[in-house]
What we know:
Elements: H1 2-14, H2 18-29, H3 34-40, H4 49-77, H5 103-117, E1 121-122, E2 128-129, H6 131-134, E3 160-161, H7 168-176, E4 180-189, E5 201-211, H8 216-231, E6 237-241, E7 247-256, E8 273-282, H9 284-289, E9 298-305, H10 306-314, H11 327-330
Parallel strand pairs: 1-4
Antiparallel strand pairs: 2-3, 4-5, 5-9, 6-7, 7-8, 8-9
This protein binds adenosine-5'-[phenylalaninyl-phosphate].
Residues 164, 166, 190, 192, 198-199, 202, 204, 206, 244, 247, 277-280, 301-303, 305, 307-308, 319 line the site of adenosine-5'-[phenylalaninyl-phosphate].
Amino acid sequence: xxEIRTQLSEDLTAATTSQDVEAVRVRYLGRKGEITLxxxxxxxxxxxxxxxxxxxxxxxxxxxxxEQQVAAAQARQTGTAPAPPSIDMTLPGLNNHLxxxxxxxxxxxxxxxxxxxxxxMILDGYHVETDFYNFESLNIPRDHPAxxxxxxxxxxxxxxxxxxxxxNQVRALEHYGAPVRAVFPGRCFRNEAIDPSHENxxxxxxxxxxDREISVANLIAVMRTVLTAVFHREVTVRLRPGYFxxxxxxxxxxxxxxxxxxEGCSTCKKSGWIExxxxxxxxxxxxxFGQVDPDxxxxxxxxxxxxxxxxxxxxxxxxxxxxxxxxxFCEQFPAAV
Length: 337
Ligand code: FA5
């Protein structure tokens, strides 16, 4: 039946006059036409009930198809129907290129998997945030100079585009309480002067772990485990003091340069270290804002620059390439979906 269907379509395509179409109709649907004979010659006595049913269905479908095709071809020849489009939109594409994930998504998914294996939840947050969750609950009151570090896009209704994924910290504490382990990957927005390492839209991955007796030792252990998994080799980390109102103590975490193994090269500007992420122990005020008792619980938090990590992992020299939508760039990361 499939062969008849294909042959019929070909014959109708080749038919250029209404006489041709009529000849095709007779060849397939006439009294001695191929389709008509198909039924007449069928040996129903040799078929099971199930086979008879299937034959009947397929035959009816074929006949209906043939009648419709012939009618359409006739209409075309007599000028009562438009010519079919020369492209058959129902055919599968010739090029089965499915595309692939963006380098930031690749790094994000890899990190999510690693954190999940350590018992962290993956949570989403809001791009449009309130002053409370983005600043106030993070111990950054209205008149605090720390607000100047993050040039903020304010909306007319008093909300803002979140400047960092830290805005999820108190939301998670309120919702889940303690103990809690979660990471929050996502987009952040700042009114930046754009240059090779600064965009106004970039990705961070925030981490939060709150439990009994969480210390800097836990922070270092988790960061080393994660970074070793990301870079597929043992990494050495160090902490330097850093200031963020929502952690105490606060740190900048550096990794020993993977290019020169700490000897000093142009990538690490001869220092042997690469600045990777800010982190620290969650400030007691933040725990209080999240309804968690700071006398019973402590925790650590970190804010990984996902965009910068992708740049380092894939050797991308200019951050602007990532949001450019330029296929010549995107197609260099062919990990399949
Ligand atoms: C913060 O945003 C803090 N919320 C991080 C934090 C979380 C500290 C938890 C302590 C505890 P900072 O502004 O430094 O910090 O940004 C963190 C990372 O985001 C930077 O290291 C950088 O990798 C990335 N980042 C910041 N601004 C930009 C930008 N304009 N373009 C690309 N990446 C950026």
